Amino acid sequence: MASAASVTSLADEVNCPICQGTLREPVTIDCGHNFCRGCLTRYCEIPGPDPEEALTCPLCKEPFRPGSFRPNWQLASVVENIERLKLVSTPGSDEEDVCQEHGEKIYFFCEDDETQLCVVCREAWGHRAHTVRFLEDAAGPYREQIQKCLECLRKEREEIQRIQSRENERIQVLLGQVATKRQKVIFEFAHLSQFLEEQQSVLLAQLEKLDADILKQQDDFDVLVSEEISRFSSLISELEEKNRRPARGLLTDIRSTLIRCETRKCRKPEAVSPELGQRIRDFPQQAIPLQRKMKMFLEKLCFELDYEPADICLDPQTSHPKLLLSEDQRRAQFSYKWQNSPDNPQRFDRATCVLAHGGFTEGRHTWLVKVDLAHGGSCTVGVVSEDVARKGELRLRPEEGVWALRLAWGFVSALGSFPTRLALGEQPRQVRVSLDYEVGWVTFVNAVSQEPIYTFTASFTQKVFPFFGLWGRGSSFSVSS
Q1: pLDDT at 13 over 80
Q2: Can you tell me where the transmembrane regions are (predicted)?
């Protein structure tokens, strides 16, 4: 025996679009739609604004002739069988699909007024000049918009999750560095007098504060990321749920829903604040105020708290022909005389630069550059990405994969997006360059006075190489650990 739901579904298929009741004496017109004979007759008698205008089908608006009704006996038999089934089944109802004003089934959507219409509503004067479409036809473009919004929202959510993963990795690196510094401080200060024990307490307290601040910012970061993911997940769930609705449910407040989704703004969180990062970078300098007699101890402590020494050799395959390299490949001198160097893809052809062998893809490394400049000469030191331009003009800035300082006669400049002349206590002639690949720091310090010079912050994604440039007759530099 047929269920109530299936009988209701069949009954909906044989309803008259005009009266919404079961078809009585069904007739078919030219376009193929079926109506009750009585309903269609009354429809034809309704006067229009233009008496000469041809009658149109209440559903598809195709013209038809009033005398062209054709009895549909086969459909009448189907209606009779469904009526018998309804006597033994519980008929369903779908009040949401019925016009509240006329009590008739809703078939249309007015795009001008964003209103869902029944047959009678469509014939009203207020909608005759409007763009009116069947519900499914009208829902199609909106479904496409929803799909586009879903794709964008999912991408935004994935981006937030990638940021969360990357920043959590950075946090672990920082926590590891802080833990290492703590152990080194404990070991070194254990062999000193009461004066150094007091300094030990100070430094440990600062490390504990850094540790706590990192964890606190991690908690704040996790909360912010969770809120962002929850916000986007909520929007996605809302759109997915709306997209599963039938056309009328989908179209209800559709523009308002889409506007809220399209005008969303994704906050790009950062796990570690610049201020905290600067405090971590500046930590080794806290040892500088110690007494002069402890200078050797302090130098050792600062060195162990920072980076591992790198064995740097210059790569002659990358060297510009105007640079003369020493046999041990640890010193370079500028010359206006071009060397007989074969051209190759790795060699700089315009910028008088050279790279070191090997390069780095991880870890913390440091090397020393001793600079000897003639009057008017200059030297560039830093790191570059593997794909830095070797041919033609080389723009020395982070956007081009270059993080470097320029040391010239009488001044030092940080080669950022816009070169910045630095105010230093003295002109450095020995510069210690330190690279922290995972955290993304390139730090420059005056190796003699221990005065900080500059720090670049970057996100390395490929191998980086120690980088050196030289200009001016008689100018030279040498590298060591």
Answers
A1: no
A2: none
Which of 472, 479, 480 lies closest to 322 in space, CA to CA? 472
The whole-angstrom separation of Cα 325 and Cα 430 is 19
Q: Which CATH superfamily is domain 4-133 in?
A: Zinc/RING finger domain, C3HC4 (zinc finger) (3.30.40.10)
Q: Look over the chain and give the mean of its residue pLDDT values, rounded to a whole number.
A: 83
pLDDT, one tens digit per residue, over 257-297 is 787 777 666 666 677 777 877 777 777 777 666 655 566 66
pLDDT in tens, 90-99: 444 445 578 8
pLDDT greater than 80 at residue 396? yes
CATH of domain 307-480: 2.60.120.920
- The pairing of strands 331-334 and 115-118 is unpaired
**135-189 vs 194-244: helix crossing angle, rounded to 10:** 170
Contact residues for 8 (Cβ-Cβ < 8 A; gap 6+):
89, 91, 92, 93
- The HSE-up count of residue 25 (CA atoms within 13 Å, CB side) is 7
In sign, the C-alpha dihedral spanning 393, 395, 400, 404 is: positive
**Range 47-70 average pLDDT:** 77
Give me 225's structure tokens: 């990321």
Q: Where are the alpha helices (DSSP H) in 88-134?
A: 119-123, 125-128
